Amino acid sequence: MDKMEEKVLCIKRDDLPKEWLMCKGYIPDINICYFDNFTPWLIQRSVCENDPQFQQLIPYCIIERDKKILVYERKATEKRLHGLLSCGIGGHISEEDYSEDKKISDIILYSLKRELLEEILYKGNSHPHFQGLINEETSPVGKVHLGLVYVLDVHDITPQEELFMARWMDIDEIYSQIETFELWSQLALKLI
Predict the structure, then answer these.
(1) Is there a contact between 98 and 42 (Cβ–Cβ < 8 Å)?
(2) Which of 40, 41, 49, 39 is nearest to 5 (CA)?
């Protein structure tokens, strides 16, 4: 199936707290269980990618190891981000992730773990920890997506093909070239 034809989990922009919408950037100190109060919508991605009345929920995880962060170059799967560096792994919550009998917070975590297993093979009993939100409306991507930032501390991983030119960088090295990173990575780093 074409990715634009799949249904993805969204929430209505009007349901979001006004203070979240007023904050353009990153929002710390939020409990992920707050999302259990929202009505979920499964909408065809080709529709919601261009409809700012809906916010697509995007789990976005930073991978840490020994005080270094996994960084990779974006490939053409998302044309609007191609060529930029990223420190976030994640993606849309698909219809296959969704279950009416589960809380939205559990669906978000399930989807994130699925994405992580697709992008990296990691060892250990680490679990992603929620850090906060990304709400930026300056880019076409940001206007229709709400980032749910997590951190996963790992001991050993094997990046898969999608993580083009993956490498470990310390935070000082990242900030020395921060302008080469996608906006979401720049904002997510402020939450850790």
Answers:
(1) yes
(2) 49
Cβ neighbours around 93 below 10 Å, total: 27
Q: How many CB atoms lie within 10 A of CB 72?
A: 20
Contact 185, 89 (CB under 8 A): no
Percent above pLDDT 70 for the chain: 95
Closest CA to 26 of 136, 171, 144: 136
Q: What is the value of pTM for the model shown? A: 0.92
Taking a C-beta distance cutoff of 8 angstroms, is the pair 152, 127 a contact?
yes
CA 12 to CA 41: how far, in whole Å? 8
Chain centroid offset of residue 39 CA: 20
Q: Which residues pair with 42 in a beta bridge?
A: 9
Which tens digit of pLDDT belongs to each residue from 23-43? 778 999 999 999 999 999 999
Which tokens sit at 17? 């707290």
Distance CA 61, CA 132 (A): 11
**Closest by alpha carbon to 107, among 33, 2, 4?**
33
